[in-house]
Amino acid sequence: MSTINFATREINFKLVYYGPGLSGKTTNLKQIYEHVPGDSKGEMVSLQTEDERTLFFDFLPLDLGKVNGFKTRFHLYTVPGQVFYNSSRRLILRGVDGIVFVADSAPNRLRANAESLRNLRENLDEYNLRLGEVPYVIQVNKRDLPDALPLDMIQAVLDPSRRVPLFEAVAAEFRGVVEPLKSVSKLVLEKLAQKA
Amino acid sequence: MLEPSLDLYGETYERVDAILSDLLVKCHARYALIVDRKGFVLVHQRAVWAPKPPSLDSLATLIASNHSANVAIAQLFGEAAFRETVQQGTDVGTYVEELGPEALLVTVFDGTAALGKIKLFTKQAVERLRTLLDQERGPPPPLDLDEGWSDDNAKLFDGLFTKRTQP
Ligand SMILES: Nc1nc2c(ncn2[C@@H]2O[C@H](COP(=O)(O)OP(=O)(O)OP(=O)(O)O)[C@@H](O)[C@H]2O)c(=O)[nH]1
Ligand SMILES: [Mg+2]
Questions:
Q1: How far apart are CA B162 and CA B74, in angstroms?
Q2: CA distances from A81 to A86, B30, B38 (A)
Q3: Model confidence pLDDT, tens digit, residues A119-149
Q4: Is residue B36 in a domain?
Q5: ipTM tops the 0.90 cut
Q6: Number of domains composing chain B
Q7: Are B156 and A186 in contact (CB < 8 Å)?
Q8: Which residue among A16, A17, A26, A60 is best mutated to probe the pocket of ligand 1, counting the most ligand atoms within 8 A of its Cβ?
């Protein structure tokens, strides 16, 4: 589903950061923006409320460079995690190539994580997509919280069969931010290479 | 549903490009873009006299998202979509028309253009583009993306975060 522009020789992918409200999706994009050199990134666009909650999405374009004469580009999006913004979340998933699910380690967010994942499945279903068909990784964020839940417990809820690549992170400190992005990008690239 | 995509290449691309240039001249618009529904720029043209455009990635993403939100609003009322989407500021405005299920044609104009003309010629361009795109086209050029291609990209990816942002 990647957009291949033969005329400008660009291959474009859409990656979406999904997860419950306040889990740290926007923080991931902000950190990526800060750590990528200027010539490899575009402007970051954030549609947010007064109190910095995502209202529609955040957007950050990344340029990887050229391979085989084609420029590889990733468009990164976050969805608004708050439950009542579901129609926006569904719109952002349109044409998604890969997903990073950002889970929250706080004990009182375990249910919110599970509900957000269920909501993701439902919304993908609207586009006739299954989670297993879309390249997908999990980032367990906020590992710095003093009462962070054990990783096993979170994994048991989100991926009991332990098949999905899982990464621990403290996104606010740029720890564990690159790895999930790299992992999902790799899956997305391999998927296209297999098709081509 | 697989997201339909509008692949442009070869002669078709050049003819699409020419239709956009012609549109700019006819209605005195600044820029004309074809954006896919996912927010990627497919083709863009800028009038010779127009100032440098803002980030086209940002523009395309916002246009596509805004359009999808407008369609969702229309559907709340049982409409398939709103018929036209014009946004007008003091100096600059945008006009968006659907170009089939895959893409949107966006015209960006300023006070030197008449809105009536913008609408008329944008609609005409959509018809010309549709006719062109509905014609039989040859297969797309081959894509040579093997395992080496994804490995090389992975290396580029590593480079992205090892380069120093600031000395
Ligand atoms: N302790 C801790 N706080 C974090 C971490 N990452 C993000 N935060 C904080 O969590 C809060 C929410 O972060 P956001 O990135 O805005 O969360 P979001 O997922 O985008 O939230 P919505 O836009 O509402 O869906 C902010 O105050 C962040 O500073 C982390 O690793 N550890
Ligand atoms: Mg956010």
A1: 46
A2: 8, 37, 20
A3: 999 999 999 999 999 999 999 999 999 999 9
A4: yes
A5: no
A6: 1
A7: no
A8: A26
